[in-house]
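Consider the following assembly input.
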Amino acid sequence: MNQQLSSLDSIRPGERAVVRRLTVGGSMRRRFLDIGLVENTAVECLGRSPGGDPSAYLIRGAVIAIRARDCRGVLVAPVREGTSWA
Amino acid sequence: MGLTGSSTGRRARDHRTPARILPPQGGRVIALAGNPNVGKSTVFNGLTGMKQHTGNWPGKTVAVAQGRLTLGGQEQVLVDLPGTYSLFAHSAEEEVARDFLCFGDPDAVVVVCDATCLERNLNLVLQTLEISPRVLVCVNLMDEARRKAIRISPERLSRRLGVPVVGISARSRADLRRVMQALEALPGESLSPCQVRYPAPVEQAAARLQAALQAYDLRRLSPRWLALRMLERDAALEDGLRRYLGRDILSDAGLREALAQVLPELEAQGYGPDRLRDAMVSALVGTAEEIAAEAVCRGACGYSDHDRRLDRILTSRRTGYPLMLLLLLAVFFLTISVSNIPSGWLSALFGLAEEWLTARFAALGAPAWLHGLLVTGMFRTLGWVVSVMLPPMAIFFPLFTLLEDCGYLPRIAYNLDRPFRCCNACGKQALTMCMGFGCNAAGVVGCRIIDSPRERLLAVLTNSFVPCNGRLPALISVISMFLVGAADGLAGSALSALLLTGVILLGVLMTFAATKLLSVTLLRGLPSSFTLELPPYRPPQVGRVIVRSIFDRTAFVLARAAAVALPAGMLLWIMANVTLEGASLLHRCAAFLDPFARLMGLDGVILIAFILGLPANEIVIPIILMGYLSESGLTEAAGLTEMRALFVANGWTWATAVCVMLFFLLHWPCSTTLLTVRKETGSWKWTALAAALPTAAGILLCMAFTAIVGLFT
């Protein structure tokens, strides 16, 4: 299955996606792993802060705010509306 | 605002040295671990009867706290570790937590989990189980989970994890007793906890290292855990390991040889350093997912529709900032409008007490100087400190704690991250700034939640730009005396609240300006990356918040102010009554400072009051009063009206009031805060800068304001 991948910051509020790959290294990668952002994790963008950045994401039942710049290191496959959601 | 006697000043523990903690004879050492913001501190307080502050935002426990509890007639030590998501030791807190679990020799570990978010919490449980089998899992917030239609089976979880599990609501005493019972029953070494299975090549490599490790005495360390960390090339471990084992086994020829064999093979199988770490975390997360699927039956997500709606209102582009302002305004309005009443009562009470004391002194035939020193000097200053400072504190503290308790504070950090990033700083600085409203010393300690050293220093140096709880009441009294004017009652309070909010906003603005200034000069650098958890909203524990914030924090702050007010009052009385060549010492000092003070729109007495107020800002206004009274020969200044008359008689105008407020907002932090800065930065230079920065800003602003006013009058 070769799906079009986009980075996490392109997911708009209300949209959902599944994590495919982390492209960052170092401490940010470890941070992401700590919050459970591993392959096949479902993510939902909940909204953006009043300044437009950071955005809040629902990850494994917890809400985490991440800045757009950091989100670029997370490649996701968008989930189309109507697809079954586990 | 973790403000208690133990979180500031000399009792604050250094978080980098989790020394081996010795249990009382025959007792055990029990470590308390858990993710941030899962109610760990509530469990700790409940078990030990201590009053460590709790709040609903991640990063509460930045220092290692310890308390005692009695189990089966035996005294035990409970150690509260910083909240962490994992034990990979990426941040200072994680390192402290892990080092204590590995090398602090705890006899048992209690891992506190959040029932509404169990899956992610299991990650830490599984990692802890790799270190020690003597684990008790406490699933906290069961009541909240029930409300969110999440059902958890502690029995099933216990079977799967291989260690005892208790489901609790840490606010309930009965539940805490069950934790104690479970702890008492916790067996020594006989547990066989669930182990995470890593990909086959990793397991094989670990097994070979484990075999090599058999030649060494590892004390209580798990050989499997150590083997896995060696595969990870975890350098942060070496020091602790050497100290714990008393020798450096990692540089032992046998082990190095084994490692040199295993690592290239792993790499050949595709497990280089990055890939290996990913595989380990994925296995952990996968196992947690599996276990959670078995033990948790969720009707809904931990982040409920209710939370979703609230967040949409509180953090949206249109309403986020206005609501933040409105909340601030509401808190100040309540503080001002309610505190006027008890303030009047208290000052009347102290007036009566002073009369009574004066009569006693006269009846006993005490000399006038003794009466002056003890009653006019010490007792009257104390009376002012209590009646002016106590009511606003006793109202502001609980209100602010309520906001904190329900989970709004992280939203402030979320809303303000953008502006802070523009100053090349971290959004979490908003949290430490909010803590500064309670007490700047506590705010400075709280800066430990910021990971990047540069951004932490920015937050430390700019913390005193927001007025602490000792300065707020002073600002309030100046505002109500001079700027509200004829408006009375609720309208007056509303106007005062509006003005105070303006002052606070100026403080916040100055925080941004100072942060920006530092980040383009002394502390240059790019903003680092950050993730911030927004915890679910929780109904605040109103009763407990009120009791705790009044009896614990308010009493603590007031006691400190009183302890400073007594000697300061005495000193001031002496200065006002000892004459040198016809003029009192006070008069001489004031006259000396006067020319400079005039440039800033103040006068000599005010400036002396600020200088003498270094130990505690609460006593500045009382000292000004004392100074004026002793010079004018007046004896009474009970209420705000008399105070105003006295100030006006000494040349105060609305412009003086504005300058006093500006200087209150921006001058050197109190000595406690300065000592805390010294402790946190380890450098007198940064401490000096933390004092010089707001002072320079205050002097400049006051002078500019005075010059501008001078142009128009």
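The radius of gyration of chain B is 29 Å. Ask yourself how this observation constrains the way the partners meet.
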